[in-house]
Request: fold
Amino acid sequence: MTRIVLVGYRGSGKTTVGALLAGALGVPFYDTDALIEERAGMPIPAIFENSGEEGFRRLERSVIASLAGQEGVISTGGGAITDPDTVALLRRGGPVVFLSAPADVLHSRIRGSARPALTSLPPDDEIRTVLAARMPAYIGASDCCIDTRAISPREVCRRVRSAVTGGTLSETDRARGLAFLEKTPLPPEEVKGLKNFLDKQTRADMRLCAVIGNPCLHSKSPALFNHLFSRSGLTYWYTRIQWPSIGPVMNCARALDIKGLSVTIPFKSAVMPFLSDIEPHAAAIGAVNTVVRCGDRAYGHNTDWLGVREPLAGMQPCPAVVLGAGGAAAAAVYALMDLGMDVTVLARTPDAAAALAQRFGAGSGPLTAFDRIDPDLVINATPVGMGDGKSVLEEHQLRPGMTVFDLVYTPPETPLLRFARRHGCRCIGGRQMFVAQASAQFRLFTGIRADQDLIREVI
Ligand code: NAP
Reply:
């Protein structure tokens, strides 16, 4: 069965290329915008006017559901990829290809279009702003990216066919990437498994993802993501790359055209110079834990702060203490500032606490300042409690009514959380952060929403 889905901003050439591609492959062509207009019995501007964007997206989802798993070339509306349920439907049965172009090229292609504006901005600003906001969704939802800026629709069509039927790897790059993996401590049978996977990589929708760090061979992420990929019907494979320095790891990611990277210690800051784009939250935190690659570009994100923020959502602003001043502490401080908390960073190295606090306008001090602050919320962002049987705070320092969030997730109940439970505190374990950040990461890798209960089950 031949099924190819084209996504991209208005003006990216989806309809022209889609029709050419369908003709060349001898399969039906579906333009979802045309099907929506047919079903609604009115043009798209009128649907927006009558039912708003939400009504339009509902209709779009139901039209795309009727095409799920169907043979053909499907060209979608520019915003279809913003809905993760629609993306799950689009991904059923074949590759999704992102046709990209810079904002100025898109503007010149769609100047004078009768389609309704999405914002109150002038058209060129609107394209720049909406395109930037949607970029993670386009990249997540697609299996490969074709830059359409300087090539004819016929050439785009040829490149889509070549990527879809021949994969995205050259023989030389593949051999180079595998040779590097053989030098890493990855067990030889796993390198062999990867080689087999890549040998079969004759389709654009067979992609690799990986956790990168040193150490990272113990990571739970491969088991988790491979389970999520398989449950979502994706032919993606998630592996592990452990190496002392980041440069060779990023060369390997390029050589094997790895789509998504989970970045762990000690690379969260070191990876940043290797990226073409860093989203603003990650830039403000100064750390990247997620990289998504698309063609020659590599986009850096931070989902750690979302993992801290989500379990605390709805909590009223209050005095809060973050213990530790490393990478996880920076994500925690950022999340707490976002929730309007009055934050103090306490660390055994007070200079490190002061440097982190200063970046976000928070207070700082040594660990001994804890009792003076008497916070309502405490976050442990040190590794203390991770299998050492220790707690960074004494039991008597906790009081009923405090919320205690330990970012350490092995064991599920650390000594600090055991004290907190005994003192009637609200307890949040590191697994809640892990689940929330992993779910955000899965969405960045695939455009699909991961079921958080399923993640909990697997870990
Ligand atoms: P990091 O960058 O190495 O920072 C660790 C911080 O803890 C530093 O401020 C360090 O102080 C301090 N520290 C280390 N040992 C200490 C001790 N014995 N007593 C007091 N302070 C100590 O590490 P990280 O990436 O921020 O990770 C911190 C913890 O968060 C780890 O346990 C990690 O597992 C957890 N984490 C959990 C998740 C999740 O999803 N749940 C995600 C990310 C991280 P010095 O500078 O003085 O050494």
Remarks:
- The pocket of NAP is lined by residues 265, 304, 307, 324-329, 347-349, 352, 381-384, 386, 392, 407-409, 430, 433-434, 437 (CB under 6 Å).
- Residues 306-428 form a domain with the Rossmann fold fold (CATH 3.40.50.720).
- The first helix runs from residue 14 to 25.
- The chain has a mean pLDDT of 95.
